[in-house]
UniProtKB/TrEMBL annotation:
It comes from Acidiphilium rubrum. It catalyses: a 2'-deoxyadenosine in DNA + S-adenosyl-L-methionine = an N(6)-methyl-2'-deoxyadenosine in DNA + S-adenosyl-L-homocysteine + H(+). It comes from the Bacteria. One of its GO terms (biological process) is methylation. This is Methyltransferase. Residues 144-206 form the DNA methylase N-4/N-6 domain. InterPro entries: DNA_methylase_N4/N6, RM_Methyltransferase, SAM-dependent_MTases_sf. Pfam families: N6_N4_Mtase. Its EC number is 2.1.1.-.
């Protein structure tokens, strides 16, 4: 399904329809790769690449230029050893839990939450961003947009991931952009975005979603999210001068 590469530019986004393994060789290093790849236990035939996800991931790691940071989202029941091909030039930094308000079960496993695995450098320390959280806010099941893509992710989680895994104005790359959730979040948060999708149907959907988000404009300019409770304010004040570290 790779076919010729098509490029569509929408404001701060450059979107490529084609095989990530081809397109990545033509793209320079970016600040953050934030992606939700074809996961190891993906049912065969559900989406492109599901015939051999480990090989697709291994090849992706081989051909990509090393970014400043790599953040990979997998469902909580995906075997993280899938990530073994991540280059040693990107040391593990931390994992982040992406919960949902209403748990669901997968076979005997309760909870369909996702995990973001973060490799490489942290973001720059700044007021309100000295401590990198280990947990994103819980998403409602309805936050996962029903746009026709079989595995589109919760925009609430991706807004949060873009906010915490990149700095304002930086470039985020998603080589497996699907319906474009990462790109929509990047537009909403004032980042540049490069997206790649092999399936023309999902590529067209991503173009439409990212175009709508770009037209809506930047919703959040990179100023830290205000801390509301007085207890949280005291904690933020106490840690404001600490070096960037793990929470
Ligand atoms: C897990 S889905 C990503 C879903 C996305 N995060 C969203 O919210 O819609 C992975 C996507 O990778 C695409 N894909 C599979 N193999 C690919 C390849 N070699 N190059 C580019 N895209 C590919 C699939 O078509 C699928 O849409």
């Amino acid at each position: 399904m790779s076919g010729p590469v098509e490029r569509v530019d929408i404001g701060r986004a450059s979107l490529y329809r084609g095989n990530a393994l081809d397109v990545l060789t033509q793209i320079g290093a970016v600040d953050t790769i934030l992606t939700d790849p074809v996961w190891p236990n993906c049912p065969t035939g559900l989406i492109a690449g599901s015939d051999d996800p480990p090989r697709l991931w291994q090849e992706t790691m081989r051909v990509m230029r090393i970014p400043t940071r790599l953040v990979v989202v997998l469902r909580g029941d995906s075997d993280p050893r899938f990530l073994a091909p991540v280059p040693t030039a990107l040391p593990f930094f931390r994992l982040i839990h992406l919960p949902y308000t209403i748990p669901a079960f997968v076979g005997r496993k309760l909870g369909r939450d996702e995990i973001a695995y973060w490799f490489g450098d942290p973001i720059r320390p700044a007021r309100g961003r000295n401590l990198v959280p280990s947990r994103a806010p819980a998403a409602q099941p309805a936050d996962t947009r029903t746009n026709g893509h079989p595995c589109s992710r919760a925009l609430k989680h991706f807004d949060w991931l873009v906010e915490w895994t990149s700095d304002a104005g930086e470039t985020i790359l998603d080589p497996f952009m699907g319906s474009g959730t990462t790109g929509v979040a990047a537009m909403r948060l004032g980042r540049r975005f490069i997206g790649i999708e092999i399936d023309p149907k999902w590529f067209d959907l991503a173009c439409r979603q990212i175009d709508a988000a770009e037209r809506q404009g930047v919703l959040f300019d990179g100023t830290p999210t205000p801390v509301r409770s007085s207890r949280a304010k005291r904690a933020a004040a106490a840690t404001a001068s600490l070096p960037l570290t793990l929470l």
